[in-house]
Amino acid sequence: MSYESQVKGYMFASTNSWWSLVFLASWWCLALPARAAFTADLSGGEVSLKLEATPDKVSPAEDLMLTLTVEAPANLAVTLPDLRDRFSGFATAEDFATDPVEANGRTRQTYRWRLTPEPAAKRYRLAPFAVFTQDKRTTPPQRTYFATKPVLFPNEGARPVVTGDPEVTPEPEWIPPTAKTVTLWVFACLAGAAALAALLYGLTKLSRRVREYRLSPVERAIAELQRLLGRNLPGRGLFKDFYIELTLVVRRYIERSHGIRAPEQTTQEFLAAAASQASFTPEVLAQLRTFLESADLVKFAGQEASTAMTDDATTKARSYICADAQHVGKEELGVRS
């Protein structure tokens, strides 16, 4: 029966036995391949001197286990020198020797070393050393020696040049923002939207003002009047505010058309200034006096107004502006002709 058949038979026969596990582990350990070793023959004459080092290549990250096996005839006493000063590239950690063993007329002795490689060493070497022998059959014993050859231990090769670059390329990992950060982002977005809206509103208003500035006095007055009516101040009970804005529309038109600073003057001051100009006839001055004094009663005297009154005032203001614009236009044509 083969060895493997015996093992299988033992395993099946002792399945529930603890010793079967021990036997299986021992069998697998024996089946493992031996670790590679570096060997060298330093023999001379009748003396056999074998060197074995594991691992087979020197690595600064691992100690080197060195074994020297000396075997010679029993009549020869072999002496090795202290090898601690013969190693280069190593820091000697520890060493020990076994007792000589004699069998079949030959003597065998083993020396073991544990060597720590130096990381910056250029080479790892055992220099030549002298092996002394004494033949005990003669009196006095005959002394001889021989020198071994040097041993250069192979290393693992040059390491890659350190460039300073990271050995791994880390991938970015997204970290979710905190609630505080999200809140700040929301407020920032709202603030940006508000600023953008304000900017657009300002640009729109500025553009409208520029367009109105390029209009004629009558066109600007009609545009201001339409904008005032769109606010629906009388419908909200703001009669005083409506009369203030309505009279300002008329006064600004007069300022642009006739050069009288009507918006800054009182009613009496304006009427006195208008009477000095030929373009204001007595009929026009009477209309303006009635219009402005009626508005002053609401603005300053607290007179109650109604929607019908505001509609009538709006009609009078529009009629005056349009009629005066036609009169001014005819005068300009007359001057040109």
Describe the model.
By secondary structure, this protein is of the alpha+beta class. The chain has helices at 3-13, 18-31, 179-213, 217-230, 239-258, 267-275, 282-299, 307-336; strands spanning 38-41, 48-54, 64-73, 76-79, 87-88, 90-97, 101-103, 106-117, 124-126, 130-135, 142-147, 151-153. It has two domains: 38-153, Sandwich (Immunoglobulin-like), CATH 2.60.40; 215-336. It contains eight helices and twelve strands. Strands 1, 2, 3, 6, 7 and 8 form a six-stranded antiparallel sheet that branches. A three-stranded antiparallel sheet has the order 4-10-11, with no helix packed on it. A three-stranded antiparallel sheet has the order 5-9-12, with no helix packed on it. A hairpin with a 6-residue loop joins strand 1 (38-41) and strand 2. The N and C termini lie far apart (142 Å).
Search tags:
2 domains, three-stranded antiparallel beta sheet, disordered N terminus, alpha+beta, six-stranded antiparallel beta sheet, about 325 residues, 8 helices, Immunoglobulin-like
Task: Give the helix/strand layout.
Blueprint: H1 3-13, H2 18-31, E1 38-41, E2 48-54, E3 64-73, E4 76-79, E5 87-88, E6 90-97, E7 101-103, E8 106-117, E9 124-126, E10 130-135, E11 142-147, E12 151-153, H3 179-213, H4 217-230, H5 239-258, H6 267-275, H7 282-299, H8 307-336
Antiparallel strand pairs: 1-2, 2-3, 3-8, 4-10, 5-9, 6-8, 7-8, 9-12, 10-11
